[in-house]
């Protein structure tokens, strides 16, 4: 029986890696995963293709991904090109009529179309939406501080998203919202949108693709697991820095509203999504409502 | 029995008008109507509200409207604001990379969001799409003349539109398309998009909202009905002028591909859609494949 | 832009009236409306056609009407023709075997067939039933006073009605009922049948077509809105007269069993149904469980 | 093993009879059987109960019965009671306005309600209809001879019947029809209605309950099977007498329109339907399109 | 009316017997009946055909039967043929590896295939299963006494059985089970399997086909009805003998878990199932949770 | 951006292998794959677990596998144990009554239960069947040569298999068949069963797990692709040896009946199925109806 040796060991090793992914495929099958897309993963051209491939693999194994994106830097850039004056309140950008118009063009027009066409090129049946479409995101004016047309999400009406997922379309949502009457659009925070949408859809996971490896502390380094209460400690103790605070808050909000797990992963790593979802190694920090040690080793990170 | 006279005759007249609309409601119920939206109807602020009300009435009587829009003038305006140089070939605008980017922002971002939020404000469950979403419009580069990223539609994959209509969403489609591989976007003619989409959806009607009352000839004035072959005559004889020719061509194309009727109506008239669809008067020109006199008086215009 | 003036102002006014009906269409869409048909509206030949047109408009806008009728005068007339002796108990007609037979013939045979064929002629898919069909109305003998085969409804088994409405048939129900075992038929009051059927179907509205303009008091004239408790007052204080009392009692019963609103309207007015349901004017008295002033002006009358 | 002898042989014989019915149950399960009900079976009180039991057994074994009835003698009787003059044309009764009114009352009112309540009493979910309901039977005036409002069926629109059967209601149809526009009712022949309805419903069987044992010839006695062509012979040769001719013609018409078999059975025999459908003996004449000997002995009669 | 006498009285008697079965057909229609098959009914060749006919009649009247069988004697016989040594613990057979292998072959192979093909021959769409298939029966090792691979059922996962019944297949289950991990099979008691499966399926009835007429006491003879508490008395008082005790225990267990009635009937009687289910006589003992006299005479036995 | 280097390159390589499988996952998703299981893959204990893992991966990516097995050697072994005399006709084993009984026990009992429990242990929802269940495989006696109860498949009635696949059960079929009347079982060839079942199910693939690497010729070595006509050549020229001939014939038969591709792969290689279906390398010979070169490199082997 010497013939099987004709098959290179390398090939058999491939099968082992595929089979190593099997328990993860089973666990995730049929689940909804909301992905906040942004930062390097969205901005750097060479990462667009691996991202699309990851989403394609997710859909091929029966996962239902929903993608949420913002795009602050690109809005600023276009505002500058158009010579709009930028006004700040408490260090935060003020969104006047002209800026809202630019944000709508850049987020719902340029970036959304870009993400959708990159996904299409990777074989994903992506459909672009903003929070205006089908009244998906209802917002009202944020009052403290008054930042003009910056809004806070008051209701998610996920019917259009759910309908598209029924036939395996992948919704891609730009962070523009609308008031209840359909009259006034608002710029809203994409992290918050991802968190609220995950809660409304009863998503299994909410994943933030960031430009850092996860939650890192000076003493413990990268934390691979974290409980919701520990997130509060990190914020209060000042260990979590500026960019991380809203993500941790969104994470805890999503968990309290029924999302099972939140992942903060490194979007700069190629195929970070596939690694986090389908391999035992994981590539970031996983947050759950309970203390981390209650979770058996069934999942990556 | 003098009491009924307490009810003002004006009120009873109202009921008569509602009932006059009854045969049209029955005829149109459950049908798909593709509407090319543009010109004054889209640009003039006071016409946005009546348009939304008309679409709301259509959906309330069981019609499934699909709206298609372009927006050439707004693209030009934004290009100018950004200081882009405009290049012309054979008198036609050349779409280079920067212009395509502007077109995407303006059509799929600003205008599409504007139309959707106006419809929402009128109580319509509108959802914005471009031809990129779900691979809705596949295009390839137009070769004669070479106008850069101006494309011609080669395939309509209407699955995303059909899915949305299933639960009574109203799709609003911006005239941007994508090549088969998802790599390259194209600027495409919105009249053609409306015609191709109507054919693919087996729409009952295709309606163009124009800035003219319909097809007008120097001798006969406004033609209320027209056969497809007469359209060809009007083009060949030079009676149809520049702006009308592509609409007549799109109309004939749609009719040959199974759309039952095409209407060219005056978008400057408030509630033109409701008048055309629900009253015996009609407000423009109706074109059908057959000679006009074969159609009994069951329908407006 | 002088062209739009070619469209007569009268035509545009038509569109406005259609659009004025839009909020009512939306509110009523998909709702069940039970209509007690009788009196002049049923007896006077010139009103049959407008009634059928009204029902057709209701169905065209997605309302599900159910029609209930009695026909006491016609039963009396036929009994007289057949030379049957009429016996009275406490001033109420006694239904002996022969009279029940006549009632069955006249209500379930002549009148039901007449209403159904008038509706068919108006384009309505009407189907005639009596309370015997599919065991729709179970009754038992009324004991106080003993009026022979006059029964009181003890159970509504609305399955046959619900099934017919599923495919947009319009059930027309004659007020004959049957005992639990299927052995004995009963003559039952059509106002009560309408009320019980509306409750069982969880109808949105119950509408009585009467020969008076609505609830009229000597001091206040026609009351356009009324609360359930005020109905009781009107009965107790003797303001409500003989013919109105059973209707007010049926109205309150229906409201307490979940019907949202009851309307008493003037069946002598042409198109009273369409006026009441689709215009802000209304043509009678609307009764709801709550005090009238809690209702915003969203609905006619 | 003497214990089984405790079970009476009579009891075991019961099981054998039930099992003898098994192949018939299998064969008929899910099939539509149209039954023309009339004559002694309908008129004689003691036969109403066994008829209801038979229909109950049919439905319990998964058969979908549809019952059609006329009632000429009862119409005549009521006309006489009302003192209407009877007019004859070529020996056939002329149906003037008054007679049509009586026919509607008697057939769609009294008799239909009677059949439905008898069936209900036997546990059958019967629903009464006439050909007017849902536009079930479209007729036009019969011209030769002119018998007033006697019509001939031109179209069967069986949607209401099919809908009711979906949830195992048993439709009971009175032989009154309506013209295409819903304006004029007609008296139509119940044998023809049964035949046309069976064809439209693609019924497996059409059964006529008559007052004779089946087709009897002077030479051969009762014919247990018959081919369609032999029916023609019987009519042409004059062997078939007056009452049998229209039934044979209706039978052949049904067979040519796709009904598999027609049975003429003796309605005076208690449980004739069950005997014909579930026992090998059969109780009448079975007619099929093909020669009788092509049918294997799988079915009764 | 002498003709009906042509129909033999014997034939009419047949119809009466069929109709006598009607209330039982109605009562059982759509219900699940679990049948423990064994003893003479399974072993004696002449009884295989009547059993298959009975099951066929059950399915033809809309009952969903599920059959469970063991086969201890046949396992012993095959073990002997293979020269396996039989070991006993407390007088009970010990199931070592070899014996389990034989049990699997005999129960899931030979006997199951035999029952299925006998049923197929009688026109029943039977499908053989063991408790291993689809993880139907999860068992764990029985500890007291240790009988080797004899297990006790810990969970019934009836999905595969329910799925097959959806399209009117008749599942036939051999009493072999599997542990939770799929690694170790067990021999389990078929009476217990039938009882647990009936409870899991919310069966209406559980029927044991035994080699005795039912529950017989020295003083009262055959008991035709019995309450659950009386079963306990019979066991405690020693009146119930060895073979009857596990059946009574299984019966009470099933009743407590929601099965409506348990029947112990004499499998040696031909057509015992049909007699018990469709005739008023019945052929054994019926056990229900309540006292026997609470049950009206609606059912056999 | 040094942080990503914290992720081991080995981990990223894993993601690449998973993504390399993506096009295969997409291609196979929702397809039916019939697998003839046998030889070393079934007999050698260490290969049972990898086989179950492979089937689990197939189901996790949306493939619907159906497994067919025989087991001649095990039947012979048991026959010997039972001291049955083996008779040969033309060098082929004769199946007398006793041998058929042994085959039923071994194939439908022991081996089928073994395969099912191994699959359950690997997380696959397996359900064992033989060709008797639900009348899956109808056979008749093979006449040339007369080998007793050896049959040839005449009809596949795949309803039970299709029903189980609907809810993602994996059917495992033992090669025992039954005659049309359900009276006589037959031993049938498992290769033929797999081929016929694949054709009936319109399977995308039929895979034979053999004890050789695929089709090997003295001159060309292992052939990775093959057309149907070349199979015929290999048989006629004598290049294909004894064991390969029936497999090649079954392969060609399946292809002619609509199966898209047949694979002969080496069951002795661990994870041969996953390698063949999800990697570009492949591990055997792929046969299609057309010439091999027409197939682009979209698939393994």
Any descriptors?
globular, disordered C terminus, 8-stranded mixed β-sheet, two-stranded antiparallel ribbon, homohexamer, alpha/beta, 301 residues
Strand content of chain A: 15-25%
Name the quaternary structure. Answer: homohexamer
**Strand order, sheet with most strands of chain A:** 5-8-2-1-11-15-16-14
The total of beta strands of chain A comes to 16
- Summing up helix and strand content along with how strands pair, one would put the structural category of chain A as alpha/beta
Most extensive chain-chain interface? A-B, 43 and 43 residues
**Low-confidence parts of chain A, pLDDT < 50 over ≥5 residues?**
292-301
Compose a concise summary of this entry:
The structure is a homohexamer of 301-residue chains. The first copy, chain A, is an alpha/beta fold.
Tell me what the structure shows.
The structure is a homohexamer of 301-residue chains. Chain A is α/β, with parallel strands linked by helices and 301 residues long. In chain A, helix 9 packs antiparallel against helix 10 (244-256). Chain A has an 8-stranded mixed β-sheet, sandwiched between helices. Helix content of chain A is 41%, strand content 22%. The relative contact order of chain A is 0.15. In chain A, strand 3 and strand 4 form a beta hairpin. Chain A is globular, with a radius of gyration of 20 Å.
């Amino acid at each position: 029986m010497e013939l099987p040796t004709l098959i290179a060991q390398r090939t058999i090793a491939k099968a082992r890696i595929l089979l190593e992914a099997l328990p993860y495929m089973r666990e995730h099958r049929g689940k909804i995963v909301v992905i906040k897309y942004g930062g390097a993963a969205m901005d750097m051209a060479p990462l667009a293709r691996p991202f699309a491939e990851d989403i394609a693999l997710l859909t091929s194994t029966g996962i239902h991904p929903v993608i949420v994106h913002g795009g602050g830097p690109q809005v600023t850039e276009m505002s500058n090109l158009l010579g709009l004056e930028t006004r700040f309140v408490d260090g935060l950008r003020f969104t006047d009529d002209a800026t809202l118009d630019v944000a709508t063009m850049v987020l719902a027009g340029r970036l959304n179309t870009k993400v959708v066409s990159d996904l299409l090129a990777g074989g994903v049946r992506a459909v672009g939406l903003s929070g205006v479409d089908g009244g998906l995101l209802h917002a009202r004016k944020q009052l403290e501080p008054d930042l003009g047309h910056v809004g806070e999400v008051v209701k998610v009406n996920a019917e259009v998203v759910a309908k598209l997922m029924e036939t395996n379309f992948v919704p891609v949502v730009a962070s523009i919202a609308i008031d209840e009457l359909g009259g006034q659009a608002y710029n809203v925070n994409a992290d918050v949108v991802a968190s609220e949408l995950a809660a409304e859809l009863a998503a299994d996971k909410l994943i933030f693709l960031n430009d850092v490896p996860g939650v890192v502390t000076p003493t413990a380094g990268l934390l691979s697991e974290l409980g919701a209460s520990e997130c509060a400690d990190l914020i209060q103790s000042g260990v979590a820095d500026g960019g991380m605070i809203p993500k941790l808050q969104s994470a805890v909000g999503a968990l309290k509203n029924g999302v099972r797990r939140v992942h903060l992963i490194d979007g700069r790593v190629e195929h970070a999504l596939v690694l986090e979802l389908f391999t035992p190694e994981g590539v970031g920090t996983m947050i759950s409502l309970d203390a981390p040690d209650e979770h058996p080793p069934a999942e990556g990170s």
